[in-house]
Design goal:
Bound molecules: flavin-adenine dinucleotide
Radius of gyration: 23 Å
Number of strands: 22
Largest sheet: 8 strands, mixed
Distance between the termini: 48 Å
CATH superfamily of the largest domain: FAD/NAD(P)-binding domain
Structural class: alpha+beta
Shape: globular
Strand content: 15-25%
Number of helices: 15
Helix content: 40-55%
CATH class of the largest domain: Alpha Beta
CATH topology of the largest domain: FAD/NAD(P)-binding domain
Amino acid sequence: MTGRASSAQPTDQPSILRVAVIGAGPCGSALATFLARQGAEVTLFDDGRRPELLVGESLVPAVIPILKRLGIEEETAMLGVLKPGVSFVWSPTDRFSFTFARFAPAVPPYAYNIPRPRFDDALLAKAVAAGAHQVVARARLEPAARGGAELALAPETLAAAPTLGGRQPDLIVDATGRARLAARVLRIPARVGPRNDVAHFAHFEGCRWDDAPGQVIIARLQAGWSWCIPLKDRLSVGIVVGREDAARLGRIPAGRLERAIAVDAWLSAIAGGGRRVTSVATYSNYQLISQRGYGPGWVMVGDAFGFVDPMLSPGVFLALRSAELVAEALNPVLRRGTTPSPAELASALRSYTAVQSAMLAAWSDLVAYLYDGRMLALLRAGRGWMDGGSTFLKSAAQRHIERHIALQASGVRTTSRYSRGLLRMLGRRGLRGIEPAELAIR
Ligand SMILES: Cc1cc2nc3c(=O)[nH]c(=O)nc-3n(C[C@H](O)[C@H](O)[C@H](O)COP(=O)(O)OP(=O)(O)OC[C@H]3O[C@@H](n4cnc5c(N)ncnc54)[C@H](O)[C@@H]3O)c2cc1C
């Protein structure tokens, strides 16, 4: 099946850039939208998979300007719920709640929690409305035999896209998420992150909720951690635990999730009386960052390039931002008006991969503070410091520190040298005798 709204195509001139985007997740659809608006001829391969549950339900505030640029914020607000902030529940006495509005205007004052399959459908519809040709097919790639390109669409994939007219595209974008299609075909290895966790999650109805509506809660468990993401009329409850601890919880995902809820007093107070209304989804082996993200005639975006960790929910933002960065990198090529060679495309995309790698590295560092206990030690130290008597200077210093943590965790300035340096310094010298190991996630 193909779909197209030709009236949205900005020009009747033949396009000088023919792009095949593989994968209609958030990243692929966003990139297809941006490129089609810039005048590229985009074919978007969509394997049509929309499982009942998809991770990526909680967004960070930095996503808001991108949703606006895509013209999809209103629809997101209708599908999802407003997320005013995040609470961290680490122990009965270590509970810290933040609202994004406190850090406005440096940080967008809210984000959203979304039902992912419907959000993905809305983004895909945007891409089609912008002029992308949707091809419902599971695409296959193969190493390219000629033409200076490194990758090609497999014959049956090329044949499935009538608008390509049997000619290979100028650029192939791997937006296949964790399927990592290009990396598999080109045998590009990935750097594997430090944790070896497995995540199980499901949606529940009838849960108890004492926090602000929409507030996301991250809670430390005896082993691992849990998320509670309020959606419309439902609560998404997930656990992220090491493989051995997961095995100790039970043999099957549903049993593990049930047991993790039952044995944790805090989680059981919220979800213990709820009713599970979906199957239980499982994710593992997700901390992967590709060692190469582009080459002659191809590029990787979103999770296909790299994913850090579910902690703090950066995934969809990083995926959408990578789509924007690729569209920006290709803009001069499109404006030049001559068809680029695969090598020219690779050179245009070099800076994108450098920026995306830096963002992934900064998020990896930030997330490590949550896992090794430094972040919570810092919050506890800050609270103790303020409880010891607040002065104007102390309050200003505390606000400054919290603001820079918020700038990083919201995605607005995760790579900022100053914010990162401040956190590093505080992680070494600002813990006021609190031992991070006590607050680490096993
Ligand atoms: C446990 C866990 C929890 C998470 N929680 C959050 C969260 O709360 N917030 C957040 O922002 N992120 C979260 N993430 C990350 C988030 O899910 C991803 O970062 C995000 O979905 C990446 O988007 P994407 O478009 O790159 O890839 P995907 O969303 O994976 O999309 C890829 C698309 O490509 C399609 N596809 C694959 N192969 C082919 C093919 N051969 N042909 C055609 N189509 C194909 C797939 O069906 C899919 O539609 C979480 C991740 C994990 C593992």
